Amino acid sequence: MNSLTSALTMSNPVFVTYMIAAALGVIKIMGQGWMTVYRMMKTDSGMVSPEDVRKGWTNKNPRPEQLDVNDYVDRSRRMHRNDLENIPAFLAVGLLFVITGPSLLMTQIVMYGFVAARTAHAIAYGTKQSHEIRATFYTIGSLLVIFMGVWVLIKAFGAL
Question: In which band, very low, low, confident or very high, does the pLDDT at 54 lie, cut at 50, 70 and 90?
């Protein structure tokens, strides 16, 4: 078994750490999308496309004001977009990070730190905390992803 295939097995605790963090990130993205749908259904508003206000089994009473911005729905939509801007970068660079063979402790710190920062960001956003608080958690997560990216570059250039 070569070093790549041995790095990407469940016998490698570094990869298992990535698997856990990645799965949590994907569940967060998908869950936030469903939260937005729930909020749209609950309020019967916050639709975004003209075809959303056509009569159907989920919209029995369509009306133009359903396209008006509803902050309750839109906040969830913004949180979803924020996840889509941040979690995929973690997924990509995290896998490359695993391949470089970092220590388990470092991996746990950066990957679980990212998950914790995204969770704290979601809580801050969902509870309407100030931009400074949200930005603090965003910054922590972003710096952890940047750290992994720089680590990967250093290891890649060192292998040339």
Answer: very high
* Topology of the domain covering 13-33+70-159: Four Helix Bundle (Hemerythrin (Met), subunit A) (1.20.120)
DSSP 51-88: GGGS--SS-SS--GGGGS--HHHHHHHHHHHHHHHHHH
Give which of 58, 78, 80 is closest to 69, Cα–Cα.
78
Domain layout of the chain by residue ranges? 13-33+70-159
Name the residue among 148, 140, 42, 57 with its Cα closest to residue 99: 148
Q: Look up the pTM and report it.
A: 0.91
Per residue in 90-123, pLDDT (tens digit) is 999 999 999 999 999 999 999 999 999 999 999 9
What pLDDT, on a 0 to 100 scale, did the predictor assign at position 1?
A: 59
